[in-house]
Amino acid sequence: MSMSSFPEGLRKDGLLHFSGFLTWSVICYLSLINLNFGSEFFIKLSAFIVFYLSFGCIVFSEKNPESILKKTLLGLEIVTVLFLISYDRYNVAAILLVLIATQLPSMFTRKQALLLMFLVSFAHFCIAYDGNFISSFFQVIIYFMLQVFGFSAIETVRREEKAKKELAAINQELLATRFMLKATSQKQERLRISRDLHDVIGHQLTALSLNLEVAKHKVSQEFKPLLEENLQLAKTLLTDVRQVVKEMRDQEQFNLVSSLENLINQLPNC
Q: What is the DSSP letter of 60?
């Protein structure tokens, strides 16, 4: 299977997704390794599977990160982890809260995410409280800070990606502006040349033709063939100049399709 068949997000953040899967696998193994095959084993295994399927649906999907479905799956993850924490003998299931925190930057603002992490940590504290406030508090606060760290790391990455996209958009705008300025400059130069040809050379050739026409009637018969030849040459040259001016002015007509095609060709990844 070629790399192009994978989602773009998976190809870009393969190491991040692999580390998340590895973390889930280790926590799952540590939670289940000493359990006998029975109802508790299969209930916990089912909870771990539900968590990872929800995690995978959110992380690997690139469409509409703020959709209700994704937020519902996130809520399912939170409930599943709190359930696992309730029956956690080895105090490791709470690490999965860090994986949840890494998904928040794509769905919530910073304030909303911090509030959600605080509420989840409060629920964690209520579950972990065993009568010793200090012990339970520090146990929960450690995981809370790990959540904040995971959230901040992913948020920073997303902010950098957004900045790169904005910079790329600005760069394309600059390239487009430069192309349009270049096209405008070329258009003005052609217009200037056509005006010079028409106003200067065209008028002088017209005057020359008239002078030759007058001279042809005043000179002796001996020089008339030479003047006639020069007169025809001047008229031909005047016709050629007018044709060139006409073609240059025809090029000034705006062709939207051609202009857009030329513009797109100047922009990378347009």
A: H
